[in-house]
Write a structure and sequence with these properties.
The protein is α+β, with helices and mostly antiparallel strands. Helix content is 20%, strand content 35%. The protein has 16 helices and 47 strands. Helix 14 packs parallel to helix 15. The structure holds beta-D-mannopyranose (BMA). The site of beta-D-mannopyranose (BMA) has 9 residues, from loops.
Length: 816
């Protein structure tokens, strides 16, 4: 947003210094940053993500740190009537001084703070000092006052990203610092803090929008103003009287024949250019803002039904199957300004229409949500509470109440926002993780009351006030897997896979109404690991590698699942490959099962999309942005029109799924053949799939057992939709039992410089992997090569685009 009349100056990233508060030596640093990044920049510590350095650096969290910044201002700024320092992302316990004058202190990394500074500013040099007390120290002492001790540990006392205190996907860095650059904001008479449009309802071709603006009138008397709101070329005018101080302006706009915003795959994510202008009675413009808005309704339909309780999203009145993942912060320590952009592009390439911003991380930056608006990716936004019970005292609740208001004012105007959710797994934890066992009745009562006050009263009331039209859900999931209703009611996190060690196939028959979490771990690409683990330590049980595995049974489970189904890895590199393949095959199969079960099941969000450091985790994309096998396979698993096979009794059932809002005509060829391409069964079908549907389209009746073909044959599915051709494979045996011929892969350059390769083989090749290097990646990768059918692969090279000699390629397949 731009505002011509409030002047905003972003403080520079340079001219910052920092020190350990007990030391007299200041060192230069860049901001945004924190004590770890600043020390690393000065080569005062080793790379925090390398080997087991994390452990050695733990002591830094116990110290206090100071950051200072010098800057100059001009007389123009000083002449403004009101000048404030605006700080967003002060993490966490900070005292702020300007030229030696105390401005105030903070205790919430998710809040924006304003400090009046006009009287302390000087025309010469100014110096801001941010003095942080150790968050570790403060939370430990706040927590020691909690009686009873709250489940979750000391972190629950801090309004700070909860994953900083360590999680099962990431390290522990209880950092302090500034996650955003502070701003100097100045204005005269009037300040426009926020303006946005919210869709209240759409009836036929008529949308009712709510215009909501927050205005500060610095006069001591009320003031008449004229408001103009433009949506494309349509203008809406209002007059209002602003009282002295803070004013919230709300008014409805009736908007005929809107172009609607749709999530990806359902229609265009249409956005309107909007502007908001404020004039005084003589026509002088006092303030203005510009932004883009999408007109749409998104409702969570959570209603009792014949099965239990539904959980699905209706967009513009139509049910939409949600496909996507859970998003965690894209870097725990370093500035991730650019990282999320390529992550969102990957989400688009793999057909996501929803991301869940998980409650143990952060509220993302404005540009993140703007990008989701324009890409058509719906955002399920958790409030930042996870896997714990939180304090209920007045100071804590008041703090959270301001945080919630500020975040709702900032986020709710985005077309992409589909849901606000109170927390991640707190309710499940309370009911099913044994937290109540050691508590007396009175404590149980108090903790549950505190839960209800915060998540069932305060937050939904704030959502209703500040986010008109957006649904609220108090905790994800509704029921944990310990309660059988998880399959019939609300959203589910099914950790039967992984945590309870169930086979992947088990989840194909445990279908919930909406799967908001399920997942499986894999190692990062070897090229990524090599940057953070020394060559000698690249073995499965080395302490350096184990320090990148934060799940207590993680590596054991990875091995166990591999042993069950996959061939023995030939070496560490092959193990990485097989582990990624195991994750990809399993998760894709479960996603297909969710999609086949539509509309019983209306969403599949796997855990987790991305990484916050180079660890072993459930992610599909590793810390350095390299796609694991899973991310590649999602292109097919989430494809808008998809065909999949499922074995049942003596049949192979073929399902067709169409997520779009149009009827799709398809041609589908089904071939059961051996790995040399000799067919046993062939059927070609031409038909249509209804819009937004899933159906059984064909039964193949072959008795695979009797014919003893399970190990030597597979089903090839080939379909053509709108002139695009797709291939998929279905196997009748575990990967380790398949009798695959030794592959003889031919790789040829297509032309000289266009970066494309043709990859083919006379026999079937399972999950061919073209080994990525530091500079070069391949799309697709980990793909099946069907006998005689070439696959076109695009090389993405960060350096040159010179012709690649096929001999320099390193190829892997399932047998090595
Ligand atoms: C989920 C998440 C995280 C965790 C993941 C894997 O339930 O909410 O708490 O990282 O499980 O264990």
């Amino acid at each position: 947003m731009s505002n011509a009349f409030t002047q905003t100056i972003l403080l520079e990233a340079a001219n910052w210094h920092f020190r350990d508060a007990d030391s007299s030596d200041w060192m230069p640093c860049q901001m945004p940053g924190n004590n770890y990044t600043a020390l690393f920049e000065n080569k005062a510590i080793l790379s925090p993500y390398f080997g087991d350095h994390e452990k050695k650096l733990a002591v830094l969290a116990k110290k206090n740190w100071q950051f200072k910044h010098s800057f100059k201002i001009d007389s123009l700024l000083l002449n403004q009537e009101h000048i404030e320092l605006e700080c967003d992302g002060l993490d966490t316990y900070c005292e702020i001084f300007l030229n030696g004058h105390f401005l105030g202190k903070t205790d919430n990394a998710f809040r924006k703070y304003h400090f009046p500074i006009k009287e302390f500013l000087s025309l010469d040099q100014n110096e801001l000092l941010f003095s942080f007390n150790s968050a570790k120290g403060i939370t430990d002492s706040l927590y020691s006052l909690q009686n009873p001790a709250l489940p979750g540990g000391p972190r629950v006392c801090a309004r700070k990203p909860q994953f900083h205190f360590g999680w099962d996907f990431g390290p522990e860095f209880v950092l302090c610092g500034l996650s955003q650059l502070p701003k100097i904001v100045s204005w005269n008479q009037l300040r426009l803090e926020e303006a946005g449009l919210h869709t209240i309802q759409i009836v036929e071709d008529h949308a009712t929008l709510r215009l909501q603006a927050i205005l500060i009138n610095a006069d001591t008397v009320p003031r008449d103003v004229a408001i103009s709101c433009k949506i494309a070329d349509r203008e809406f005018k209002f007059n209002t009287l602003l009282s002295p101080g803070k004013n919230v302006f709300r008014n409805n706009i009736e908007f005929k024949n809107p172009n609607l915003w749709w999530p990806r795959g359902s229609g265009p994510a249409y956005l309107y250019d909007c502007s908001f202008q404020l004039q005084d009675s003589s026509g002088v413009v006092l303030a203005q803002k510009k932004w883009k808005t999408g007109i749409r309704t998104i409702q969570l339909i959570a209603e009792e039904d014949s099965i239990g309780q539904s959980f699905y999203f209706k967009v513009n009145g139509e049910a939409v199957f949600c496909k996507g993942s859970n998003y965690i912060p894209s870097d725990i320590l370093f500035n991730a300004a650019e990282k999320w952009k390529s992550l969102l592009n990957a989400a688009v390439e793999t057909h996501f229409n929803m991301l869940r911003i998980w409650g143990g991380g952060i509220y993302e930056c404005d540009a993140f949500y703007e990008t989701c608006d324009s890409l058509g990716i719906m955002v399920w936004q958790d409030f930042m509470f996870a896997c714990a019970m939180y304090p209920g005292d007045t100071a804590f609740i008041d703090n959270v109440s301001i945080e919630a208001e500020q975040q709702l004012q900032r986020l709710s105007k985005h077309a992409s926002i589909a849901l606000f959710c109170g927390n991640n797994e707190n309710k499940e934890g309370w009911h099913r993780w044994g937290w109540q066992a050691s508590l007396d009745e009175a404590s149980k009562q108090r903790l549950w009351n505190d839960y209800q006050n915060l998540f069932q009263k305060l937050l939904p009331e704030k959502v209703q006030l500040w986010a008109p039209g957006i649904s609220y859900w108090d905790s994800s999931p509704l029921f944990g897997r310990g309660d059988d209703r998880f399959k019939t009611h609300g959203d589910a996190h099914d950790w039967g896979l992984w945590h309870d060690e169930m086979p992947f196939s088990k989840l194909e028959s445990r279908i919930p109404r909406f799967m908001s979490e399920f997942g499986f771990q894999s190692l990062a690409s070897l090229t990524t690991l090599q940057e953070f683990i020394s060559e000698n330590d690249l073995i499965f049980e080395s302490p350096a590698l184990l320090n990148h595995q934060k799940h207590p049974r993680g590596n054991k489970l990875i091995k166990e699942y591999l042993d069950r189904d996959y061939p023995k890895p030939a070496n560490f590199e092959h193990l990485v490959y097989l582990n990624q393949l195991c994750q990809a095959d399993g998760i894709s199969q479960i996603i297909s099962a969710h999609r086949r079960a539509k509309p019983y099941c209306m969403g599949s969000l796997y855990w987790q999309f991305n990484d916050c450091w180079p660890g072993i985790s459930w992610s599909g994309i590793d810390y350095l942005g390299r796609w694991k096998a899973l991310q590649h396979q999602l292109k097919m698993a989430f494809a808008p029109v998809q065909f999949s096979a499922m074995e049942s009794d003596q049949y192979i059932k073929i399902y067709g799924i169409n997520d779009s809002r149009d009827i799709k005509t398809f041609q589908l060829d089904l071939t059961v053949q051996d790995f040399f391409g000799n067919p046993l069964y062939f059927q070609s079908l031409e038909d249509t799939l209804k819009e937004n549907s899933s159906r059984l389209i064909h039964l193949i009746s072959i008795d695979l057992n009797e014919l003893a073909l399970r190990e030597t044959h597979y089903l090839q599915l080939k379909w053509v939709v709108e002139e695009d051709t797709f291939y998929a494979s279905h196997f009748f045996e575990k990967p380790k039992n398949l009798q695959l011929p030794k592959p003889d892969v031919i790789v040829e350059n297509i032309g000289n410089t266009n970066g494309q390769l043709s990859v083919s083989s006379n026999t079937f090749v399972r999950a061919l992997y073209l080994k990525e290097t530091k500079d070069e990646v391949y799309f697709p990768n980990y793909f099946d090569v069907h006998p005689g059918i070439p696959v076109i692969v695009t090389r993405k090279n960060s350096k040159s685009k010179s012709e690649l000699l096929p001999e320099s390629l390193n190829l892997f397949d399932i047998k090595n």
